[in-house]
Design goal:
Layout lengths: L4 H22 L3 E7 L2 E6 L8 E8 L5 E10 L2 E8 L4 E9 L1 E3 L2 E2 L4 E7 L1 E7 L3 H6 L2 E6 L2 E6 L3 H15 L14 H19 L6 H18 L3 H10 L11 H13 L2 H13 L10
Antiparallel strand pairs: 1-2, 2-3, 3-4, 4-5, 5-10, 6-9, 7-8, 7-11, 9-10, 11-12
């Protein structure tokens, strides 16, 4: 007999969504540091560059849509400058040289830029910082014209960027993120939550011994799942895992409960994986 298709699907879908969500939480994120005269100063909170800071000025059109961006950050050799314009279109990794102008005047030799879609990036030497902070606009000169970006109050924003970077050396003490439990144990706990919920809310047949066994299995798994309990429950609810089985589906529920009680998390997850990859008419051997 196969594990209940409903509960197997719940486990597979829920686990996929949960892992995707937790993976997204681990991806690099930015948090606001300060807002200075139209510049947003932010700190990266994830990834290898955690703690690094950047400052961004956004220009909007009359309809309030983003027209262009100026993004400034520090790197080991000076400044990293990124300019974005919604009318640009560059191939990823495309390289070009174009002079950088500050208030309409050339700022040093022609700069090498790297394109990616609507963005151009370049590294600027520290020697250019004083002139950049004194300017109110910067522009790139192309063969067919200039792209102009307003940068008012860039000096005040840069001072905030430096404060943000200085704070990087003394990060606040925060609790370490909990480790994600093993996939097999997540899968077992996910189905266990559904079984536990059905036993508590639905008129299904189960002996006191079976109910106690489910409770004991869940109690053993719950401590390591505590940090993820809300996310797992949300996914089970979205997948209708707590819905009461109909009379004809109750044997499938009882079989799922039996396997949850008797099998180890690894054995239980293996059955779910085999059913997820098996053809609809391919039987799965009952242990």
């Amino acid at each position: 007999m196969r594990l209940s298709p409903v509960l197997a699907a719940i486990s597979a879908v829920t686990l996929t969504a949960l892992l995707a969500g937790l993976g997204a939480e681990a991806a690099p994120r930015r948090e606001p540091f300060e807002s200075v005269q139209g510049w947003a100063v932010e700190r990266r909170t994830g990834g290898p560059d955690a703690g690094s800071c950047s400052m961004t000025r956004t220009a909007e059109d009359a309809q309030g849509d983003t027209a262009s961006l100026v993004i400034v950050s520090r790197d080991h050799a000076g400044l990293a400058l990124a300019l974005a314009d919604r009318n640009w279109e560059f191939s990823a990794g495309e390289r070009l040289t174009a002079p950088l102008l500050l208030d309409g005047r050339p700022a040093g030799p022609r700069t090498t830029w790297t394109g990616d879609g609507q963005i151009l990036r370049a590294a600027l030497p520290d020697t250019l910082v004083p002139d950049l902070l004194a300017a109110r606009s910067l522009s790139l000169r192309f063969e067919d014209g200039e792209a102009v970006f307003d940068i008012p109050d860039i000096a005040a924003a840069y001072a905030s960027l430096q404060r943000c970077e200085a704070a990087r050396a003394e990060p606040p003490s925060v609790a370490a993120a909990p480790n994600l439990p093993a996939r097999a144990r997540l899968a077992s706990y996910t189905v266990g939550l559904a079984v536990e919920g059905v036993l508590g809310a639905c008129p299904v047949t189960a002996t006191d011994r079976e109910r106690a066994a489910v409770e004991a299995k869940m109690a053993a798994l719950r401590p390591e799942m505590a940090a993820f309990e809300a996310a797992i429950r949300a996914q089970v609810t979205q997948s209708r895992g707590f819905a009461c089985p109909t009379a004809e589906k109750e044997p499938e529920f009882r079989e799922a409960m039996r396997r949850f009680i008797e099998l180890s998390p690894d054995e239980f997850a293996a059955i779910i994986d085999r059913q997820a990859h098996a053809a609809p008419d391919m039987p799965v051997t009952k242990p």
